[in-house]
């Protein structure tokens, strides 16, 4: 799958159960709505996907954002050499994207260079 688009909401104040369910539903719908393009034939299959958290500051201020990255996949199936192609607003979501991508795993023994992914962060109003 070549493009993963995600949206997460995290509030600074404690969130009730109903709000957490709404946020989970919003997240799932945003992933499905944006969709994924077909995986290139030479790309290894992604085995483990961890989605980035929505930064508390961005969620509290209803800030939406977009991050586009290009990265390599090592022979061991881990993500290496992440290059940010686009980050809006500048640097707000980058740390969370890096933390999540560090946990991604792909098929072993299929190194690949220049894989691109896009993350879309969309807040919801209470």
Automatic annotation (TrEMBL):
It holds the Pfam family TonB_C. The keyword Transport applies. It is a single-pass membrane protein. One of its GO terms (biological process) is transmembrane transport. GO terms for cellular component: outer membrane-bounded periplasmic space; plasma membrane. Residues 1-41 form the signal peptide. Keywords: Cell inner membrane, Cell membrane, Membrane, Protein transport, Signal, Signal-anchor, Transmembrane, Transmembrane helix, Transport. Coiled coil: none annotated. GO terms for molecular function: energy transducer activity. Gene3D superfamilies: TonB. SUPFAM superfamilies: TolA/TonB C-terminal domain (SSF74653). It comes from the Bacteria. Belongs to the TonB family. This is Protein TonB.
